[in-house]
Amino acid sequence: MKWIRTISAEVEETAETLGGKAHGLVLLHRLGLRVPAGFVVTTGACRAFLREGRRPDGLDDELAAAVTGLERATGRAFGGPHRPLAVSVRSGAGVSMPGMMSTILNLGLTTGATEGLAAETGDRPFALNSRLRFLSSFASAVTNADVDGAAAAQAGDAADTAAAMKAVEDLVRERCDRPVPDDVTRQLEWAVEAVFSSWDTPRARTYRTLNAIPHDLGTAVIVQQMVFGNRDARSGTGVAFSRDPNTGGNVPYGEVLFGHQGEDVVSGRSATRPLGELAEREPDVWAELLEALRRIEAHYRDACYVEFTFEAGELWILQVRPGRFVGGAAVRVATELVDEQVIERHEALLRVSPQHLRHVRTPRIAPSQETDVLARGLGACPGVAVGRVATTAEGAVRMARDAPVVLVRPETSPNDMHGLAAATGIVTARGGPASHAAVVARAMGKPAVVGVSGLTVDAGSGCVTVGGRTVGEGTLVTIDGTSGEVALGTPRVVANAADEHLHRLLAWADDVSGDHSARDEAQRLDAAHAALRHR
């Protein structure tokens, strides 16, 4: 049995074998978009690893051959002292599990390869920063701990970077009883094992249980040439929706982070900028991104989502999937795609579920001078949540046994999954629309507010401070995932009225079912679905 496939336009296998991420990369190749060269270790290899407790027979030889092919495709040497090849090692299950499994960046930057990268670029701080990022992501993957070594690299001080690298390497040696290998083959083999193993971490199992995802699917592992968003001032990373996921409006939406790598967007530790700033800073990258979104949306005949990095002014697409909008955004996209003659009315009706209708009339905190607004951030998932403040994931689980809680954190990570699952709403001091907290909140349909400027969380004392005011754990708050408001107590809540898009969709539903009597909205849509299924 072959365990590895080169990612190319010719690959024919399904997402069940390749994983959703690699399957999307195959699509990007077919659409003629710029994608880093790479290969995928199939989900079958993960299942064999989990079953047998070791890498399956033949995988090591296939990894060696795949790396040789990647060296040939890129003109670089894996771990070499001249033109070194560094790779990302990412998870990619057949179903989306955002942020639940491990990713390692810059793998292959051994001490010798790091010196080679410094010589090639003439930028030693960049090379050391990239080595530290490798060590931090590798340590996080093999220890299942949140390792933030990259924070020390922001200042660019060589002594601080060297100290941070040593601290991370010491952590791995202490937790794993072996050092971080300085041999690229051993690095890659251990990284693949770590990604396989992350399928069975408590956070991943919790997510699958909450979303009724089978536990026996396994994850693929994608290995790709690194694109360095932290290379220089003309480099960066970001995420983009072809349409606004909050409203469904036909305008690109997302965020960008200049001079950083992708994990800085996801972690929320760095302040992102609105996607539109890319048009001002890098107009050629912006134009190419818009064209990529146009091609992908034309293929899906639906809104889409991409992750991208640009290095020295050159754009690379790293991931793609359909937009998966909910609530009013899903209704608006479906009706406007009919207007654009992309889909027919019958398909628009089938794309909207009764579950979507339950979220169309989004609750909001009512405007009032009596509302005691504690803080404002960015609304990351629409809706209103009321609960008592919890400042740790463990505290959220404990307190949620008695009453609803709102988890308030500086930022969240996959290791907070149990707390996110227990909470009714989420607030973070840092991060934007693509941060871990925002992505998980949208996946779980929980109201969230992120990027609350000036918010500090003292988990030790159980206190939250913002705007000169301090509230303790257990304080009752209400959050508005649309406006980004965090209010004390329980202010009055109102719901949006039905808009023209919903009225039009339901009129189509009545035409299909032939029933124009007065019924609730879900019944009208259900009747149309039933009629369409029997055609």
From TrEMBL:
InterPro entries: ATP_grasp_subdomain_1 (IPR013815), PEP-util_enz_mobile_dom (IPR008279), Phosphohistidine_dom_sf (IPR036637), PPDK_AMP/ATP-bd (IPR002192), Pyruvate_phosphate_dikinase (IPR010121). The keyword Transferase applies. This is Pyruvate, phosphate dikinase. It is an enzyme of class 2 (transferase). The keyword Ribosomal protein does not apply. Residues 403-484 form the PEP-utilising enzyme mobile domain. One of its GO terms (molecular function) is pyruvate, phosphate dikinase activity. It holds the Pfam family PPDK_N. Its EC number is 2.7.9.1. It comes from Streptomyces aureoversilis. Keywords: Pyruvate, Transferase. Residues 60-269 form the Pyruvate phosphate dikinase AMP/ATP-binding domain. It comes from the Bacteria.
